Amino acid sequence: MKYLVIGAGGTGGCIGAYLAKSGKDVTLIARDEHLAAIRANGIQVETNWQGTYPVFPIKAEDAQHYQETPDVIFVCVKGYSLADIVPFIKRVAHQTTVVIPILNIYGTGGKLQKMLPELLVTDGCIYISANIVNPGKIKMHGNIFRIFFGVRDPTEFKPILKEIEADLNDSQILGVLSADIRKDALQKFSYVSAMAACGLYYQAEAGAVQQPGEIRDTFINLITEITTLAAAMDIHFDVDLIQFNLDILDALAPTASTSMQRDLSQGKKSEIDGLVYEVLRMGEHYSVAMPTYQRLSEKFKSAGF
Asked: For residue 119, what pLDDT is reported?
């Protein structure tokens, strides 16, 4: 199958690198110096367990000049850029192309499906901590790399989804075709939302949240509030959500941080609306009190975020 990855940052860059390394037909959509570096030298992947290694060659293009027709599109852009890529997807997709959004924000698949009614758009989420450190170079902060994806309506299932799952696993990515993507996506969202809010509020990297004390307690309180929200949404996890997220957190390198935190520290546009404020809107919709989210949000808004 022919894969296209829109967005070659920490998430998309790693998906593309792992697929390409295993011999899959994949093209990355990138821009500017990052694109030039990938074309010249491939993607340099920095890890704490395998050192730094190049994935080369790997196909890379900008959206304007990409002329292939992919079977599978991984969407790895920020939530605020979602609408901007719809015309590009409409131009390159064929009738049976599957679109898999891998974004931090809960409910992205349903929103994108409304913009692309002629295609199958799944929901999806990813467990990874990685970011661009230099043009063409991505650093992974821990060896967790999992992609969950699936249809919201079981009647929309297509056999190609099993092929995608197999290709991911063949590429050393733990790919899971979820039977309940609503639950799995909210489970992942609970981590990235709480970690982003906690990291921003305390200006802390993972190492500070890994230590007992106020910061870790705040992280736990945020997860607890999402657990209560999930129950109101009739979503029931089959794991202890607090321990599950603490295990992910504690497996990270102490220097790991969230993209929202990095973006705001650099004065860039961020996903704070979808990662933090949307949780409060969901709580209001389902009549669930979320005092910790409320307290942190008030500080963020007073700071102009």
From this structure: 97
282 is written with which tokens? 């969901």
Shared domain for 167 and 192, answered yes or no, is: no
pLDDT of residue 258: 85
Q: How far is CA 81 from the centre of its chain?
A: 14
| Residue 10 confidence (pLDDT) | 93
113 vs 121: CA distance, rounded Å = 5
User: Cα(23)–Cα(58) distance, rounded to whole angstroms?
Assistant: 10
Give CA–CA dist 47/206, Å, rounded: 17
pLDDT for the residue 265: 85
Same domain, 124 and 188: no
Query: What gap in Å lies between CA 145 and CA 104, rounded to an integer?
Result: 15
CA separation for the pair 17, 95 (Å, rounded): 27
Q: CA-to-CA distance for 185 and 178, rounded, in angstroms?
A: 9
What is the domain range of residue 87?
Answer: 2-179
Task: Tell me the β-bridge partners of 72.
Answer: 3, 98
Taking the CB of residue 116, how many other CB atoms lie within 10 A of it?
16
Segments of the chain scoring below 50 in pLDDT: none
Token pair in block for residue 195: 């970690």
Question: Rounded to 5 degrees, what angle do the CA atoms 279, 281, 282 make?
Answer: 65
**Residue closest to 178 by CA, chosen among 76, 75, 72, 100:** 100
Residue labelled with tokens 């499906």:
113
**pTM as predicted:** 0.90
